[in-house]
Structure formats: C-alpha cells, structure tokens
Request: fold
Amino acid sequence: MTHQIVIVGGGAGGLELATRLGKSLGKKGHAKIILVDATLTHIWKPLLHEVAAGSLNSSGDELNYVAQAKWNHFEFQYGRMSNLDRARKCISLDETLDENGEVLVPARELSYDSLVIAVGSTTNDFGTQGAAEHCLFLDTREQADRFHRQLLRRYMRAHASQTPADERIDVAIVGAGATGVELAAELHNAAHELSAYGQNRVSPENMRITLIEAGPRVLPALPERISLPVHQTLEKLGVTVLTGASVSEVTAEALHTAQGQVIPASLKVWAAGIRAPGFLKDLDGLETNRINQLQVRPTLQTTRDDNIFALGDCAACPQPGTDGRNVPPRAQAAHQQASLLAKSLKLRMQGQGALPEYRYRDYGSLISLSTFSAVGNLMGNLTGSVMLEGWLARMFYVSLYRMHQMALYGLPRTLLLMLGDRIGRSTKPRLKLH
Reply:
C-alpha cells in the first residue's frame, strides 16, 4: 500500500516540503503527498508588511496551491484541521463555508502514515485589554489587505477634509521586532508615494507613525550593533520610537501604556509576540508548551508520537548548547527543517530507524527599511559575522525571497518571474492604490 504523507499548513516550510516530496516521491509513485491548507493561495509571510503598506500587490505575488500541486506531483486539500485521532492515524478537517454561509467543502477525515504539522504561528496579544477588538494583525494576507484598505480609506477621507486637523493620520505599531520595524519604514515610504500620486493635501509629515516596544531597544532578538543603526534611521525618517513602554490597554482612540503614556492612533497594529494556533493544545495528547507549540525531539518527531512531525513556528525544537532555548521562529529555520524532513521521510519509508537530527544554523539577519536602507549581518563558517548596511544589504534581503521562489518554482521560472517584475515596474504604479 502506498505510504501517505499528510502535510498540514502551506506556509514557507510546509509548501517547500510538499514540493520537494512531490518531485522526489510523488512523481515516481513511491508515496502519496497531500498538502492541507485553509486558504487557496500562498504568499511569503515576511512580505506581509509590504502588502499592508501597498508596496507589494498580493494578487500578483501569490502562489496557487492547486497549480503548484499539479506542477509538482502532490495533492492539495482545501480545509482547516480541527482534530487528530492518533489511534486511527487520521485527522479531521472542518467544513468550509462560502460567503453566503453555505457549505462549500464538507467536513471530512484524512488518513496518514506520516503526518507533518506546519501551521505556523499567530500574533500573541498576551491578553491585553482591547487589543483583539481595536488592533489589526498581520498574520495572513487577508489581514494585510484589510490594513491596506483602511489606510487608503483614511487617506481619501483626509484628502477630502476641509480642516487641517482632519488631515492627520496617526498610526501606532506595537512591537519593534522585524515586522514592526519594517512596517514602520514601509508606511513612511507609502506616505511619500501617496503624496506623489495626487494625495498631496495630506503631506508625508501628516502620517505620524509611533513604534512601541516593551523592551529596552528595537529588534530585541538581534544584536545591538544591528538595532542601533535601525533605531537611528527610523528616527531620521520621522518615526517616533518608544522603548521600555508596555501597552496595558487599547481603546478605539488610543493606546495606553503601563508607564502612563497615552498614544492617540486611528490605525493600530499589534506585531508583538507569537503563539501557535490554539487547536494544537491538547491535540489528542501531544505535548505542547505555554504558547501552544508542539514539543518535538531533534528529529522533529513529536515527543509522544513517532509518526507525527512538526516544523516551523508551531514546533518547539530544542537548540543544543543554548541553556534550554528552542530554535527561534524564523523563516530560515523553517526552510532548514523542511530540507531535513524531505530526507528523513524518505529514510523512514525505507525502514531506517535512526533519523537525522536537526541543528539550527544561523546565517544572519537582514532588516529592510523600505527603499531607504537595509541593515543586517551575514554569518558563515569562512567569513564569520559580516555587518551589512545600505544597498548591499538591500540586495541580500531581496535575494532571500528569490531563494524561496527557487525552492518552489526552480531556477528557470524564478528568472522569468524576476524579468516580469522588472518589466512591470514601468507599467504599474509603485504603490497599490485600491
């Protein structure tokens, strides 16, 4: 009987794994590969801040799962995982409703021989009062599109206003990690682009961006030598950066900090902290941590079931030699884990008992400040840690997305996509205006 591998989650790690296995096992009929996701298209999550600001048109850069499955010899199943039966080795998918509330895809079960859970993470608002009601999040393309629509609506309203006071747009971003920092820079760029496209009654200075961080500095997970120039660049751009300020309450008009500050904002984005989806907690006895991540061994097998693997942000994978810290939730970790599992699942099908163990390799970090600058470091065995800034850092940052595209499309199609993007620059506006 053909070995059935079910991968739940079509993010960077899950989609890359399905593509690799489809090419190597699915094409030859050695295994049946099924990818499950609750949406029909994929967009690289590190780009969502560009979608929110409008500098990236999500409909032009999205990948269709059905087409990707056809091209790479795996099957796509549309649905959201809700339950797991380890004894029967099957997962449950909830029914999917259309916009009229009618059943589009019925509830069903999928059996598996090997199960890979790669459902990523969502933003963690830490139960802050009013955050869920009044803040926007950037976990999905739909949420990024929603932010962009609200931004444009406020610009149109401000452009048509009769009083100077109504021309001001206050944006507050909670969390000065990579997403918050990059969003602040992209919004500043969007303000200039909107003014150039005729919304000149609202000057770029009228978009007041405040970046709020509970820690002592921006980019707290990265070295200080990176966070310091980023902080300085943001302030040069006119972004107000508040560090050591923890948000205690969010209302419709403002954010309130535990330190007594009141920050007025009509657009509020929460970009601080992560947690895995709630359905993973107590999923048929699988072990999870306090933020719902599945506990896995270095082989990426869950601690209580060798038939179930987890990768990416939803997996709590130990990192040897770090005093008990787990592998950080970063795109490069998901890519590395997908590469390892593509090998491990083949070995498992061949009956080899000992699977290779994952060791996280940090190749550095790059932060894009829109068209203004980029900062980061690259790490390697030969070069050590090399600090980059400006145009060169920006080119390396762009190359990360191209590497993701090559993993999904291959080199020839990626080169054609790059050519198409270059040609399209002269025929499309620099900012999405709808």
Summary: DSSP finds eleven helices and 27 strands in the chain.
